[in-house]
Amino acid sequence: MPFPNSSARTQRHKLILAATIIPLVMLVVVVLLVVIIQGRKEGPSSEILLEWRGKGTTPYLREIVLGRCYNYVATVNSELRNKDCLKIWELFENAFMYKNPCSITEKDYQPLMDMASHPIPCNKSLFWSKTSNLVHRYTKANQDFVTLEDTLLGYIADGISWCGDPSSPGVNYKSCPKWTECESNPGTIYWKMASKMFAEAACGTVQVMLNGSIEAGAFRNDSIFGSVEVRNLNSDKISGMYVWLMHNIDGPQSEFCEGRSITILKEILKKQKIRVFCEDNYRPVQLLQCTRNPEHIACKACS
């Protein structure tokens, strides 16, 4: 059989080489296109985050929220053990991720609020304003009362910050807006909604711990307590409110139960047909203050 001539061999080699190289070139082109498109979606935008004056999203937010949720339903309130913490986290992140943090609405959080809400026993609701440290020391020592932070919604979000951003990765760890920059931010909307639900759930007698050492007044209309919680109390379920007006052990004593701001609070609640009782330096709470200053005259048995 005759050998093929050199031109025939060359032609065949070209065909084999072309059949090998063309798929490789096409593969490289496809890969480059994917990289370019993905880079346009994530590359430049991931470097351009909105800048705010507040503290950024707390690191390990997912782990913190999930951990707190599991701890709450397992040890704090085992009656809620059927709550789905993974679903609660999903609803939490969906409310703010990849969104402008100044355009959050109640609609964003409503699924989360519905999922994580639970009843509050009557006579146990304890509201507060400007007494955060003292009121939570008290509820830890006396578990007969429940603050918003002792509910599931309050427990998982207490002390942390979070906000989203339209660009990748969808969360801003560098900065988040303060409420003075925009009121429709993730934290403000969350706490207002949770506070409203907490007030609506209150029944029987309710308590509020206010700070009588603040010169501007113990009760403020623009506080969460004044603007949200007081306005959403249900007089059909509430028999009365007890105001515990606490002063710092070392003073000053800026306002007492007959003071101007407490009078305003009484007038508001009177219109809502809720009776108000006020006590200066509620003794059980004052004794808790005395654990840190036992020699003060206010802490003596016959003070």
Can you walk me through this structure?
Helix 3 runs antiparallel to helix 4 (106-116). The protein has one domain (50-299): ADP Ribosyl Cyclase, Chain A, domain 1. Helix 9 links the parallel strand 5 (238-246) and strand 6 (276-280). The protein has 303 residues and is of the alpha/beta class. The chain has helices at 6-46, 61-76, 85-94, 106-116, 132-141, 152-157, 186-201, 224-229, 260-271, 283-290, and strands at residues 54-55, 126-129, 175-176, 204-211, 238-246, 276-280. The strands form 2 sheets. The protein has a 4-stranded parallel β-sheet. It has 10 helices and 6 strands, in the order αβαααβααβαβαβαβα. The longest helix is centred in the first third of the chain and has 41 residues, at 6-46. Helices cover 45% and strands 10% of the residues.
Task: Give the topology, please.
Elements: H1 6-46, E1 54-55, H2 61-76, H3 85-94, H4 106-116, E2 126-129, H5 132-141, H6 152-157, E3 175-176, H7 186-201, E4 204-211, H8 224-229, E5 238-246, H9 260-271, E6 276-280, H10 283-290
Parallel strand pairs: 2-4, 4-5, 5-6
Antiparallel strand pairs: 1-3
Helix pairs in contact: 2-3, 3-4, 4-7
Features:
alpha/beta, 4-stranded parallel beta sheet, two-stranded antiparallel sheet, 6 strands, elongated, 303 residues, ADP Ribosyl Cyclase, Chain A, domain 1
Produce a short descriptive summary:
This protein has 303 residues and is of the alpha/beta class. The protein has helices at residues 6-46, 61-76, 85-94, 106-116, 132-141, 152-157, 186-201, 224-229, 260-271, 283-290, and strands spanning 54-55, 126-129, 175-176, 204-211, 238-246, 276-280.
